[in-house]
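Lab meeting notes turned into a lecture example. A postdoc, R.K., suggested we walk through two folding results consecutively so the class can see how the record format repeats. The first protein's sequence and C-alpha cells come next.
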Amino acid sequence: EQTVVDFERLSEHAAAFQGHDVGFCCLGTTRARAGADGFVRVDRDYVAQAAELARAGGCKHFVLQSSRGANAQSHFLYLRVKGEVENLVQAVGFDRCTILRPAVLLCKRQESRPMEWIVQQFLGVVARVFPTAYSVPVETVARAMVACVLQPGEEKVKVLENRAIHELGKAVPQQGT
C-alpha cells in the first residue's frame, strides 16, 4: 500500500505511520534543488518528524539511509545535517535503529546532474578496482536495508559504512536470481 503525504503537514498524516514494525527512510534532496533551508527541512526536519510519527505508531526498527562522513559537528552543511538527523532519529527511542552511510550512490536519475554524472562515470571505473571504496549502487543499498531487518540483531543502534553495505547487500539475492 502506498500513501501520499504532504510533508509540510506531516502530523495530519499520522495514520499512515500506524501499525508498522519497520520503517525505511531514504528521503533526501539536494541543496542545489531546494536551497540550503529547503535541504535542511527535507533531510533533517521531515526525516526526524517521520521517525517520531513512526515510533508513535508502533514502529520498532527504523532504517535510515544517511551518508558517508555524516557528522553533526562538520563544517559542511550536507555532512552536518546528515549527522544531526542521525542523532535525532536515534533519540526517538526505537528498539532498533540501523543507519546506513553509503558513499556516492550509483544510479540513473531522471533529472540532469552533469557533474554527478561525470563523477559516477569515473567512480564506475574505479569500482572495478576498488569495488567497495568510493561508491555503491542504489540496488545494493536497498538490498542491505532489507537484509539488516531480516537478520537478527542485538544492538540498539547499528551504523553500517560503505563496505558493510556492500557485504550486507549480497545477503539478499537480486530480483530474478
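The second example is placed directly after the first for contrast:
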Amino acid sequence: FSHLQKKRRAATARRQHLKSAMLQLAVTEIEKETAAKEVEKQNYLAEHCPPLSLPGSMQELQELCKKLHAKIDSVDEERYDTEVKLQKTNKELEDLSQKLFDLRGKFKRPPLRRVRMSADAMLRALLGSKHKVCMDLRANLKQVKKEDTEKEKDLRDVGDWRKNIEEKSGMEGRKKMFEAGE
C-alpha cells in the first residue's frame, strides 16, 4: 500500500514541477513579447515621426504649423478609412458566420412566447393544407337530456312572481286563495 502512495506522491510532485516550469516559460515569453513590441514601437516612431526642430522666425513657425495640420488631416482620413474597412469586414464576418450556422443547420432559437391556440389551428400549422380532420372536442361529447322534475314544473307554472303577487293582493286575491284552499 505504501508503494502506491509513493508513486502518487511522485506523480503529483512531477505534475507540480511541470506546471511551475510551464509558468516560468510563459512569463519569459511574455517579457520577450513586451520587449519586442516596445522596440517595434520605437522603430515606427523614429521612422514616421522625425525629431521636431523649431525654426527661429515666425513665418517658418507658421509654415511648420500648416504642415502639421495637413499631416493631422491626412492621418484622420486614414483612420476614418481604416474604421470603415473594419466595420465592413466585421459585417462580412457576421454574414459568413450566419451562413455557416445555416449550412450546419444550427439556428439560434428565438425567444418563444406562449400562444393560445386551438387543436385545429395547431394541426393546421403543423400539417398545412393536408389537415382536413375537425377536432371540435365539444362535438364528441354525449348529449344528456334533463328529466323534468316536479319542482321545475312548478317553477315554470308559477311564472313571474310579480303577477302572482298582484293577483293575490286585495280582497279578490284573498277570496281566490280562500276558494282554492277549500
